[in-house]
């Protein structure tokens, strides 16, 4: 198995990306990791270590976080992200990981790797943390701002296959994000999608509300990219605000400091539940190759967990399974 890693993408590249890759290489010696990026910088970070399952692939260019995706991918053909995508396209790698520009990665997937037959729009599918530690696979959370009912149907099928194959959930419950649980609730998009999902070869449980997502009211959450991204950012902002308020309150008096010391183990457990690094990466589903999007601020732990997740997806033949389900084969 070969996994290409965009070593130059993300806030902490290449330092923490390379360190995470090294830890993954040591953990899984049967997996070859292709570090794509500035060869001299990567080799300096390897510090002379000769790992038999780590190969450096030189890429002289980098796509920055603020670059316009389509222009960047078309003009920077020698960037680390595009070269990693070509490795997947040419079957020299089974998967690629990147913590770089999300739009550029989506564009790389579309223009370099290509879509699966039968898929109109690939979807970004991260795991939202839940209180029972299982998480909810959510798609789409920002790759496509506008969607048609048919797109949501494809998201549901792909998400159900991913949850079943990668996470081992038998008959994953698929829910449609809406403003209420009643079947006729919502806008024209959700009403039309509801009818399609009822007829789909999935375990559709109907409409679900955002307030119940963190207690895992479904295993796969379906929504358009606009509504999904608004929900995601609201959850992230709420979590950050609550933890900041708790920190300020516990530091206010000597009594609260004592209370904080007592509660600290539980608070750490709660923070871990909300930690994106536990899951590592989000797949771009619907492509004719496996691409994992890591969080822009991914650290060593996140990179290693992304490799772990990618290994499972490759082993269970995720892309082939989605293609078979979509095309009825």
UniProtKB/TrEMBL annotation:
Transmembrane segments: none
HAMAP family for the chain: PlsX
Keyword Lipid biosynthesis: yes
Identification of the protein by name: Phosphate acyltransferase
Family annotation (InterPro entries): FA_synthesis, Phospholipid_synth_PlsX-like
Catalyzed reaction equations: a fatty acyl-[ACP] + phosphate = an acyl phosphate + holo-[ACP]
UniProt keyword terms in alphabetical order: Acyltransferase, Cytoplasm, Lipid biosynthesis, Lipid metabolism, Phospholipid biosynthesis, Phospholipid metabolism, Transferase
Protein function: Catalyzes the reversible formation of acyl-phosphate (acyl-PO(4)) from acyl-[acyl-carrier-protein] (acyl-ACP). This enzyme utilizes acyl-ACP as fatty acyl donor, but not acyl-CoA.
Record localization: Cytoplasm
Species of provenance: Paenibacillus thailandensis
Subunit structure: Homodimer. Probably interacts with PlsY.
Pathway(s) per entry: Lipid metabolism; phospholipid metabolism
Taxonomic path: Bacteria, Bacillati, Bacillota, Bacilli, Bacillales
Enzyme class: transferase
Molecular function as annotated in GO: phosphate:acyl-[acyl carrier protein] acyltransferase activity
Family under the similarity heading: Belongs to the PlsX family.
């Amino acid at each position: 198995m070969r996994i290409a890693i965009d070593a130059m993408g993300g806030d902490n590249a290449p330092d923490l990306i390379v360190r995470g890759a090294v830890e993954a290489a040591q953990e899984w010696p049967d997996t070859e990791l292709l570090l794509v990026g500035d060869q001299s910088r990567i080799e300096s970070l390897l510090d002379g270590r000769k790992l038999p399952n780590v190969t450096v692939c030189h890429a002289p260019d980098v796509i920055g976080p603020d670059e316009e995706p389509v222009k960047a991918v078309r003009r920077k053909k020698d960037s680390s992200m595009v070269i990693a995508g070509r490795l997947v396209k040419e079957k020299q790698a089974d998967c690629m990981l990147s913590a770089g520009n999300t739009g550029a990665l989506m564009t790389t997937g579309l223009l370099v790797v290509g879509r699966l037959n039968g898929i109109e729009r690939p979807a970004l599918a991260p795991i939202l943390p839940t209180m029972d530690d299982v998480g909810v696979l959510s798609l789409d959370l920002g790759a496509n701002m506008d969607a048609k009912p048919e797109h949501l149907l494809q998201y549901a099928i792909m998400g159900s296959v991913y949850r079943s194959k990668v996470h081992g959930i038998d008959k994953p419950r698929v829910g449609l994000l809406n403003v209420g649980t009643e079947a006729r609730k919502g806008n024209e998009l959700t009403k039309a999608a509801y009818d399609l999902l009822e007829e789909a070869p999935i375990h559709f449980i109907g409409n679900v509300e955002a307030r119940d997502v963190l207690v895992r009211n479904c295993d796969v959450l379906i929504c358009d990219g606009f509504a999904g991204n608004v929900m995601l950012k609201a959850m992230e902002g709420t979590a950050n605000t609550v933890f900041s308020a708790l920190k300020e309150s516990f530091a206010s008096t000597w009594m609260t400091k004592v209370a904080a010391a007592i509660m600290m183990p539980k608070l750490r457990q709660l923070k871990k539940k909300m930690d994106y690094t536990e899951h590592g990466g989000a797949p771009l589903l619907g492509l004719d190759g496996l691409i994992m999007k890591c969080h822009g601020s991914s650290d060593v732990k996140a990179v290693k967990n992304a490799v772990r997740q990618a290994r499972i997806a490759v082993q269970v033949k995720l892309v082939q399974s989605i293609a078979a389900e979509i095309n009825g084969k």
